[in-house]
Every structure is written in structure tokens, then in C-alpha cells.
Amino acid sequence: MVTSVPKPSSFDEIRPGVKRPAKETLLTPRFYTTDFEEIAKMDLSVNEDEVEAIIEEMRNDYNRNHFVRDEKFDRSWDDIPAETRQIFIEFLESSCTSEFSGFLLYKELSRKLKHTNPLLAEGFNLLSRDEARHAGFLNKAMSDFGLSLDLGFLTQNHNYTFFKPKFIFYSVYLSEKIGYWRYIKIFQHLEANPEHRIYPIFHFFDNWCQDENRHGDFFDAVMRGQPQLLNDLRAKLWCRFFLLAVFATMYLRDRESKFYGILGMNSRDFDIEVIQETNKTAGRVFPIILNVDHPAFFPILDKCAADYLKLVASAQSTTPKFLKKIMNLPTIASIGVKMLRLYLLKPIDMTKQAGVVR
Length: 358
What we know:
It contains twelve helices and six strands. It has helices at residues 36-40, 48-60, 82-113, 118-143, 151-156, 165-192, 205-224, 233-256, 259-262, 267-282, 297-315, 321-344; strands at 13-15, 18-19, 31-33, 160-162, 288-289, 348-349. β1 (13-15) and β2 form a beta hairpin.
């Protein structure tokens, strides 16, 4: 049994033991809403069999007994150094928030579509089941370190970003697939280097990542049933944009984080692998993918990350806010120019690739 709960470091609390949600920034997990009526009108007949097959796989709920805490959790974590504990809590919070935001979106979609598009409604309901399970497991892990999130408070006190349905599908598909590759890469690393497995939650990442993969497959199948989302010039431009946005968000955020260091990983090498694999996976459904093997791609991202770290340092300084905004303009412009350069690198047109399964 746990004999004590380690006291958290300098985290702001709503009340004792309940962490105030992290301040929202451009790179933190977001909460989305969308045009539910437009999604309700979607005709799945073009690819209904594939959608039904993936929903049947989710009905089987292969992980129903996976997220069960075992004796590995029954101990005190006082031996984890304070700095490591703080970094790990930040990781748990970010992951929990991301999973919970997915739960809220999927649950609302399921509720809104129940009577108008029952097949899609069931799919989103099964997605919400998985995301709720993930968020609860992560929040319980936080409580081992003396803190947790009030998910009800988070629901009511978070900004919601409106995205058109097609943008929801592009971004969530990529988020689920990049989540798969992140979890499986971390799991494989820690299997090979168990001395860096600081907490038993990482034992669960092997099956966990399969939930992320199935979720991505669901959005893949839905998009295939909506040719207008994939088969014109605008679709190519938007797919290209969301690939870059998702990859850059992860890359910049991870340059700031010390999380991978405490796992004995090189975050840059890890991100490059994850981006390459996710980009390749996206090519199975997206009409266009990025040329991440271009010799300029990651060096430009590195320069964006260096600029981003300047903004992070500025945010932590005591300089007056109005002055910070003025001083940060050249850095923000620099990031914008570099991102445009990345966007304009010639992409790979998957519609012209021989032997690609689409």
C-alpha cells in the first residue's frame, strides 16, 4: 500500500490537491467545437462498409480490462526527485487534458448525431468511451503525486475553438496517429531501457497506442467516404497545412520540455522519427504529404524552435507585457517566415505514387 503521497512542487491549486489547469497557450491542448448539423448530414454510403468494420472492432473493446492499476502502483513515490516529479506531473496534465478534450468533443458529437446519423453517433460514442478511460487513468496517476485535475472545472472554464468539420477531421486524424507513434516509440525505448521507466504507467503504452491507432483509422474511413475532403486542390492545400501545423506544434513544444530527458531519450531524434512515421501513415489517406526528408526541413524547424524558446524566455521575464509584445514581434515574424518556407517546400503528391494503397 502507498504509505505517503509526495508533496507537489510549486503548482497553483484551485483547492488543496486540485491543480489549477495550465495556462492556455498556442501550443497547449485545445478544446474544440464544430458544426454538428453539417456532420449529421454526411452520407457514408461511399465507404460505409469500412466505417462499419472499424466500429465493430471498437465494439469489441479489446482494452476493456487493460487500464487496471496493479501492485506496481502500490508504493510511495517520494524517491523521485522534485524536479523530475514536476516535469512528470506536467506531462500527465498535458496528456490528461488532451484525452479529456477528445472525450468532450466525441461525446457531444455522439449526442448530437444520435437521431440523424446513428452509425457515426455510435462511432463517436465508442471514441469517447476510450478517451474517458485514458483521461481517468492519467488523472489517477497524477493523484499518486498529490495532485489531480477537476475535470468538471476544466469543462466549464476552458476556451472552445470552433473548427469546421473538415478541419476537425484533418487535425484529429493526425493527432490520433501521431499519438500512436509517440506511445509506441516511448514504450519500445523503455522496454529496451527499463532503468528509465520512472513510473508504471509506461507499461500500459503498448495496448494504449492501439486505441489511438483505431481512432485514427475511424477518421481515415470517414474521410474516404467524403471525397470532397480529399480530392481537390483545396483539400491538398489544407492537408499540407495541418500536417505542418501538427508536426511543428509537437516539435516546438518538445524543445521546451525536459520530459524526454528524464526517460533517457533525445527529444529531437524522437520527434524526427515520430514525424517521419506519421507523415508516411498520413499518405494512406491524404492526397499529399510533406517531404520531411528534404535536407532543409528539420534544420528550419530547429530555427523555429530556437525562436520559440526566445518567446518562452520572454514570457517568463519581468518585462512589462506591452513592451514584451513589441519586443517579440521580430521573433514572431521570424517564425512565420520560416513556417512559410516549410509550407512551400515541394510536397509529395500521393495521388501520383505507384503502388500506394488508398
